[in-house]
Design a protein that fits this description.
Blueprint (H helix, E strand, L loop, with lengths): L7 H6 L10 H52 L2 E5 L15 E6 L14 E5 L7 E4 L6 E3 L11 E6 L9 E5 L5 E3 L21
Antiparallel strand pairs: 1-2, 1-5, 2-3, 4-6, 6-7, 7-8
């Protein structure tokens, strides 16, 4: 019989190596929790980004209106805010670039050859979103008094493609030339004007 000699001292002094890790059950549990959190977080993140985009567009529209009104008062000329076509005429394509220009000759169009000046331009909105002003209105005209020219109150309505009504916002432009943003007065997730008229995306 073969006998093997060994050193008891060296054997007892040799430490055992322990390996740590996760079990299959722990892995499945972790993946399940991650999936649940993703399911909850992704829609909320999407809604947050859409709301951020809408609020940003409303803020820029607000700034354009303020610019138009201030220029009209300060220059003593009519100032127009509208989507300009290549021919210098205003259109109803509010989703396109929106320009603010001084209408020196009061012909309600932009005449570059008449030394008329575009004082600001708001970039086009995201493709698929809607921006509507009143019922087919093509321009906002401010007089030197700061009042609107020739129109009653009008409402801008911005409707995102993803949540047309739930996240739609608007700006009401009064005959006086002043304007305000719509709010959800009755907490039904749809913005209303101060007259409690709900926004529409049609």
């Amino acid at each position: 019989m073969l006998k093997l000699a060994y050193d008891k001292k060296s054997l007892s002094a040799t430490p055992f190596k322990h390996f740590t890790g996760i079990t299959l059950i722990e892995l499945i549990t972790s993946v399940s929790i991650a999936s649940i959190l993703t399911t909850i977080a992704v829609p909320n993140l999407n809604q947050f980004l859409v709301k951020l985009r809408v609020n940003n567009e409303i803020s820029m529209l607000h700034r354009s209106l303020l610019t138009a009104r201030n220029y009209a008062i300060n220059t003593g000329n009519n100032v127009i805010m509208c989507p300009l076509g290549d021919d210098g005429n205003c259109s109803t394509h509010w989703q396109s670039d929106i320009s603010v220009f001084i209408d020196i000759n009061n012909n309600k169009r932009f005449d570059k050859n008449e030394n008329e000046t575009i004082v600001s331009t708001k970039e086009a909105i995201k493709s698929g979103d809607k921006l509507i002003y009143g019922k087919g209105r093509s321009k906002v005209i401010y007089q030197p008094t700061g009042h609107l020219s020739g129109l009653t109150n009008g409402t801008f309505r911005y409707c995102p493609q993803e949540f047309p009504l739930a996240m739609a916002r608007g700006i009401v432009v009064a005959r006086s030339g002043r304007f305000y943003s719509t709010t959800d007065i009755n907490n039904d997730s749809i913005d209303e004007t101060r007259n409690k008229k709900k926004l529409s995306c049609d």
